[in-house]
Amino acid sequence: MTMSLSKSILLIEDDPMIGQSLTMALNDAGMQVDWLRDGIQGQMALDSKVYDLLLLDLGLPGKSGLDVLKETRSRGDRTPIFVITARDEIDDRVIGLDEGADDYLVKPFGFKELTARILRTLGLHGNNEATTLANGEITINLATNEVSYRGIKLALSVKEFTLLRTLIEHPGMIFSRGQIEKSLYGNADEVESNVVEVLIHALRKKFDNEIIRNVRGIGWMVVKHSS
Q1: For the domain 8-121, what is the CATH code?
Q2: Which of 55, 202, 203, 220 has the most crowded CB, counting CB atoms within 10 A?
């Protein structure tokens, strides 16, 4: 049974088998997919059309997926980006997250898991009731995914937002690595070992080093502040 999601996906993947299979699976889920096979064409598509999500292979002809990612983020484009990588591209996965990717998928992956992650990223699970979380100088609008710090709005990736929300919802509570990974990826088996550190490092750069505290040997937390 298909769902009427009215969401547009740009898929940049040069492998014809993977590209065709992904396109069919996403179409069956009710999404509209534009499939392109090289980085140059993909960048042109991003420049001319607004998409709800980008599925981006790294090993592309013409222009690498990493270069497409960097250029997209350098323009201030916050379109959610899922990087698609092979199992031996561990360093590229970390670099991709550091450059602004929101998630990664390791080939081969299950289409059911992919669709679930996309639905979650696009906010199609649950309701969109306006809710605000606040802790000290941080305010999170759960309806718009906007984050303000000291009155200034900050742009966060989907994973950065999810991690911050998890901690802000439970100030003073220490979260282990496994708990944070589960909030970010559900029950996915393939989670790179230092993804949590990469995301926390990115958040500290955007806020300050004290925003997320490390409790050595246990996990991470935010201190509870009065709003």
Answers
A1: 3.40.50.2300
A2: 55
